[in-house]
Amino acid sequence: LVTGLSAAEAASFPVKPEKSNDYEAGVRTEWLNRRLIVNATVYDTEYSDFQVQTIVPNILNSFILTNIPKVRSRGFELESVAQVTEKLHATLGYAYTDAHAVDYPVGQCYSGQTVPATCTGSPAFQNLAGATLPNAPKNKINMSLDYKQTLPFVAVDADLNATTFWQSAQNFSIVKDPGTLQPAYGI
Fold it and tell me: Would you tell me how many other CB atoms lie within 10 Å of the CB of residue 97?
């Protein structure tokens, strides 16, 4: 974000400054004598002139920085931590994100895109309104269990941890290139 520039100075940059309006609300709670903590947050952010890196097709697939006229990102997060026993703790988290271009009438096409109904003009472009932003999976879930045990006759504590993570599919490029789609996965 470039601030404090005159209109002439700002016009000399290849991209416009990014601006946003953010709204967020959250609740932090403690239950059962602090043995259970539950937190929740909702958010809504609207961007104008959102800056995104994209590929210029057929020019050795060079990357450029460009603006998307209007973008919206909204969602919620839920996280909890529970002390199941003195030695066992559990965590659970969930995040939902809807991050997409609201207005992007002249988006780039991807290399090899041949569908003329969606990628037209010279140079070719497509309307990417509604396209999901790069690196923005809609759903993420994480869970873990942590168990601590003092080992007898040894001055060492054992700490056993099991963690799992899952996220829905995401695309690494806003241009809807099927070659940059990462399917949903869990670890």
Answer: 20
Find residue 45's DSSP bridge partners: 22, 73
C-alpha span between 126 and 63 (Å, rounded): 17
Give me the residues paired with residue 55 across strands.
63
Could you give the angle at the alpha carbon of 62 between the alpha carbons of 59 and 65, nearest 5°?
Answer: 130
Point out which residues pair with 38 in neighbouring strands: 29, 80
Assign 4 to helix, strand or coil. coil
- C-alpha span between 141 and 74 (Å, rounded): 17
Q: Is the model more confident about 109 or about 72?
A: 72
**pTM reported for the whole predicted model:** 0.80
Is the four-CA dihedral 9, 10, 12, 13 of positive or negative sign?
A: positive
**DSSP code per residue over 83-124:** E-SSSEEEEEEEEEEEEEEEE-TTBPPPTT---TTTSBTTTT
123-155 in b/e form (b: 16+ CB < 10 A) is: eebbebeebbbbeebbebebeeebeeeeeeeee
